Structures are given as structure tokens and as C-alpha cells.
Amino acid sequence: MSISNKQWAEVQRELEGLYAQAKFRYEGILVQVVRVAVSESTFALRVYLDGSTCAGWGHKNLAGPNPHYKPVTEKLWRKRTRAMYPPKKKQELIKRFGKRKAESALPGLNDVQVWYEAVFMSASSLVRQYKKLEGLELVSVGYQPELDSVVGE
Questions:
Q1: Whole-number CA gyration radius for the chain
Q2: How far apart are the first and last CA of the chain?
Q3: How far is the C-alpha of 94 from the C-alpha of 109, rounded, in Å?
Q4: How confident is the model at residue 60, as a pLDDT?
Q5: pLDDT tens digits for 33-65?
Q6: Which has the closest alpha carbon to 78: 47, 43, 32?
Q7: Read out DSSP for 65-121?
Q8: CA angle 146-32-142, nearest 5°?
């Protein structure tokens, strides 16, 4: 069942709060989004897949193929990119050696590193990305008591 606009508004409102949590199900994976402290004064939304997270899951090629890479992170985590050479350094190399020699001497001159992080800095960016996913189901919004951990039952 797809998530309605009213439910998306509720999810975004919840995730903008300080004690935020939302749970989704995607392709059989439980996706839990929780607001966590990144530094002393900065909070962000962290995405857990089946209750855990690992930075290695979002790196396709570290120094060769990564055995820990999970393709589902491309859809559920935030995409990050960085040029192999900063623009200023690239311009200096081209000016010094010329465009052809710089590109032949440094084959990765125009390459870009791509990786995925389990951290979203704002609720709106997470909601924008998740709205595009087909088959995403909303499980719960806000902190729900876990039935297994209820004392006395």
C-alpha cells in the first residue's frame, strides 16, 4: 500500500522533532529512521537497516570491489560525491602540463568518488528521497512500545 500525502506530512512533522523515529518496510527490510546526535550541538536522522548500520555498506569500491556493499543503500541512504582532485588543483595541473598531458599522466583527473551515508541532515531531504521509492510501506511513526520488551507480559 502506498503512503498518502497526509501520512508523509505526519512523517515529516515527526522527523523534524528532537525525539524522532519512523519505521518503514522496503523489499523485506525494516528501515528505521531515528534522530541522533552527530556532534555536541548537531543532530541528524540516521537510517538503520534491520536494526543495524555499517559505513562499509555504502561504499561500492573502496580499494577494489567491496564485499560488504549493499545495493539497497543506493535507494535508502544519502548519496555523497567528491571529486578526486579539487577544482583549484585540477586547474593548476592543466595550466602546468596542458589538458592532454594532464589527463594522460593522471587518468583519474576527472573521476568522482561516490558513496552513500546513513545520515540525513534534514527531514525534508529524507522525505523527498523516500517519496520516490515504489513499494515503501509505513510501519509506524513516533516511538512505539515494543511488545517483546513490555514488563509483566
A1: 20
A2: 32
A3: 10
A4: 84
A5: 999 998 999 999 999 999 999 888 988 876 677
A6: 47
A7: B-TT--TTHHHHSEEEEEESS-HHHHHHHHHHH-HHHHHHH-TTTT-EEEEEESEES
A8: 60
* Strands ordered across the beta sheet of 119-120: 119-120, 43-49, 29-37, 21-26, 137-141
Cα angle for residues 58, 34, 37 (degrees, 5° grid): 85
Instruction: Confirm if 73 and 67 have CB atoms less than 8 A apart.
Output: no
Query: Can you give the pTM of this predicted structure?
Result: 0.81
Query: How many distinct helices (H) and strands (E) make up the chain?
Result: 5, 7
The distance from CA 149 to its chain's CA centroid, rounded to whole angstroms, is: 29
Question: Which distant-in-sequence residues (6+ apart) come within 8 Å of 112 by Cβ?
Answer: 81, 82, 83, 84
